[in-house]
Each structure stands twice: as structure tokens, then as C-alpha cells.
């Protein structure tokens, strides 16, 4: 309404949370915020177990069931089901890296990537393997590590029977078929398909 809108011009935030220091200009926003304290998620998906504190989030989630991708990039053919994902994608065109490390020069386009990076400074390894004493800073690294226990090798070569655990390893292997040598010495004409071989050289 008009009264709530006028607060956006004055920066006044008359609606205050009684449980924390959150304040806002709209009564509806305070109501949504209170769900973060109660844990209540009133907006539920009729097709799966997904639930949210916001109607807008549920609306975007429903696109995952229909494969509809209403958010389209005006610079390429990228399309997605979430407005936030389109916003992140646009950084790939602008080169902007909005999230920066306060300790080193690292920057990235996703807040989650920055959180994972910060663990390299603290040494914290919150993701632990329940089969051995391995620990790491990201869920993706733990997932890759677990393959060493199961013996599963999801990346398979289409030209031979080689299989491996990581996408990086399959890329290195493919260069043995193509003859590509992407790593070059800046002193002489030597080149190779593995960075480790270049370091030894």
C-alpha cells in the first residue's frame, strides 16, 4: 500500500522483530521473517516434499517439475527457472565478481563459493568421510572422495575402456587420443598434456 511504499523513501523501518534486531518497512516482510525463527514453511509443493517460507520461492520451485525456464538471458541462449540464477549468470558476461575474499585477492560470482574459499584460510574441514578420517571444505570434494571407497568411476572414455573419478582426469586422458599438448614451456619449445610433466621439465 501507499503508506508502506513511502517508507522506502525515508528509510524508516517501523516493523521490528521482537526476537532479533531485524526491522523492515512492510508488515508482510516482518511476517515472512518470523518464519525464520519458528521454522515454519507454510508454502508447500503439491508434487514433492519441498516447502518454503515465501510464496515466490515456491512459484520458482514449481518450474523444476514442468521444465519451464521463464528467465532468459538477453545476451545468449541461457535460460533458467530462478531469477537469482539468471542474475548470477549475467556476471559471466560482465566479468563482475561481486564476492571478494577479505584475506586474499580471490573473488567469485557466488556467495557459496566464497564461503567454501574462506575455509582454505581457516583450515576448517566441515565435510567428513564416515568411512575414514578424510575431511574437506566442500560437499563436492567429499562426494568425489567417496568414489574412492565405492570404486565407482563415473567418467568414461568413449574411445577406450579408460574410466576415472573426476572430470579433470577424463579431460587429461582425452589428450592422449587427440595428441593435444596444452601445457607449454615458456623457455623452449617443449609442450605436454600434463601440468605435472611440465613442472618436472
Q: What does the model show?
A:
With 201 residues, the chain is of the alpha+beta class. The protein folds into 4 domains: 2-38, Classic Zinc Finger (Double Stranded RNA Binding Domain); 43-94, Classic Zinc Finger (Double Stranded RNA Binding Domain), CATH 3.30.160; 99-150, 2-Layer Sandwich (Double Stranded RNA Binding Domain); 155-200, Classic Zinc Finger (Double Stranded RNA Binding Domain), CATH 3.30.160.60. Helices cover 43% and strands 14% of the residues. The chain has helices at 2-10, 27-38, 55-66, 83-94, 111-122, 139-150, 167-178, 195-200; strands at 15-16, 23-24, 43-44, 51-52, 71-72, 79-80, 99-100, 107-108, 127-128, 135-136, 155-156, 163-164, 183-184, 191-192. The protein has a two-stranded antiparallel ribbon. It has a two-stranded antiparallel sheet with strand order 3-4. A two-stranded antiparallel sheet has the order 5-6. A hairpin with a 6-residue loop joins strand 7 and strand 8. The chain is elongated, with a radius of gyration of 24 Å. The N and C termini lie far apart (70 Å). The model has no long low-confidence stretch (mean pLDDT 86).
Amino acid at each position: 500500500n501507499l503508506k508502506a511504499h513511502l517508507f522506502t523513501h525515508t528509510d524508516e523501518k517501523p516493523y521490528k522483530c521482537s526476537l532479533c534486531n531485524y526491522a523492515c518497512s512492510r508488515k508482510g516482510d516482518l511476517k515472512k521473517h518470523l518464519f525464520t525463527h519458528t521454522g515454519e514453511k507454510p508454502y508447500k509443493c503439491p508434487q514433492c516434499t519441498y516447502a518454503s517460507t515465501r510464496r515466490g520461492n515456491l512459484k520458482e520451485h514449481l518450474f523444476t517439475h514442468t521444465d519451464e525456464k521463464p528467465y532468459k538471458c538477453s545476451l545468449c541462449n541461457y535460460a533458467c527457472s530462478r531469477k537469482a540464477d539468471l542474475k548470477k549468470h549475467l556476471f559471466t558476461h560482465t566479468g563482475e565478481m561481486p564476492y571478494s575474499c577479505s584475506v586474499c585477492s580471490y573473488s567469485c560470482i557466488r556467495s557459496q563459493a566464497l564461503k567454501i574459499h574462506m575455509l582454505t584460510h581457516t583450515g576448517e574441514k566441515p565435510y567428513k568421510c564416515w568411512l575414514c578420517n578424510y575431511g574437506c571444505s566442500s560437499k563436492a570434494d567429499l562426494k568425489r572422495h567417496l568414489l574412492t571407497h565405492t570404486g565407482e568411476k563415473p567418467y568414461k572414455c568413449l574411445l577406450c575402456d579408460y574410466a576415472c573419478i573426476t572430470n579433470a582426469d577424463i579431460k587429461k586422458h582425452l589428450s592422449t587420443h587427440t595428441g593435444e599438448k596444452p601445457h607449454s614451456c615458456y623457455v623452449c619449445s617443449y609442450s605436454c598434456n600434463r601440468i605435472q610433466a611440465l613442472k618436472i621439465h
